Prior knowledge:
420 residues; alpha/beta; Rossmann fold; 3 domains; seven-stranded mixed β-sheet; 14 helices; 37% helix; ligase; CPAse_ATP-bd; ATP-grasp; nucleotide-binding; D-aspartate ligase
Amino acid sequence: MKQVLVVGLGGDIGTYAFQRAAHERFGWRSLVVSPRVTTFGRYSRLATWVIEPEVFTPEVLLARLDAIAADHPDHELLLFTNLDWHVRVLAQHRDHLDPRWLLPFPDLATFDAVSSKVAFAAACERVGVRTPFTVAVGFGGNDAGVAKGDALALVREAALEYPLIGKPSNSADWFTARFPGKQKIHHFTSEAELVEVLDHLEEIGYPSEFLVQEFVPGDETHMRSLTAYRDRAGQVTLVGGGQVLLEEHTPGTLGIPAAILTQVDQEAFDAAARLLDHLDYFGFANFDYKVSSRTGERVFFEANPRIGRNNFYVTAAGVNVAEVAARDLLPGHVDGDAPPRTPPREVLYSVVPYRMLLRYLLDPGLRARVAAAKRAHGVFHPLRYRGDGSLMRRLYVRALDARLVRKYLEHYPHPTESGF
């Protein structure tokens, strides 16, 4: 049987989590192609790092992948990333890659239908999935958004109350945009703040839509994460999720879950599977949705055409994400019965120290559930892995914990009703 080489692009914590899952389940080692050894890979023994300063130049990336394939002529090649830009480039140039490369990602047309939040909302409407009221603002490019003045008028006519949420329709375009005060997700407390960002986007000629959305009531514990996989045969073989307990709060990472309590939300799981079937989707997808504190309805915000930064919560809850991909793409390497479609265990996933997490949990019932999950299974942190547990690695991860605590004390010292 051929050996398997897992190649990760970028080296974020989600890529590390997938590498960990592959190592835990199969003993596979990895290569990571990145401009530098990232925070999450430092002192790790799971992967060999290939330093490529121009990994975000398509021609250089493709040439580097060709070289890796040529250096491993007898290997199965599983390519993995957790960055929209890479997913799109790989979809655009799939025909130019060595056919041995296995990619658990959608094709270009499906990528565009999902990564554009405007197209995503339209697809959701067709299958009866609720999305927030949204105004798509355009800036004179090839987008379909309304002009800035018209957008402000629509917001006023809809009588939307502030705060409002601002986010890009296309994550790949947002990745390359540069302007003062840019955040992953903007939280506008007034029309003046909204106008300031729209002016910046107009000045730089932003090429796609910027979305202004209603704020669905409830703090960040009303947010949910959902991870799914739809295989080459058109079967949704994974759908799992959890309740967000705490999000990150630095400007560049605002809104990314930092702690999740896994749970089964069958209504949301069915909605996600219905959408994936409608799109004839292939590969991993990660959804963000929120349960309104006012109505209890589930409101879907987006689907990312990749596994998501926090995918380790799925592995921790009982379904190894690398096995899910391998059963589809590398079936000869997998034995035994298939794992359940939905992870069965309620576990606590957190990159935040437990005591710090409790500081932000105001609901006594939720605190009790979190404490029970910790007593039953402990706390699951993707970077704490015995199979990658050298002394330097353990000390370094502990230092990352301390740094994260300092960031919370600086940017979000006390919990708020809105999560901002």
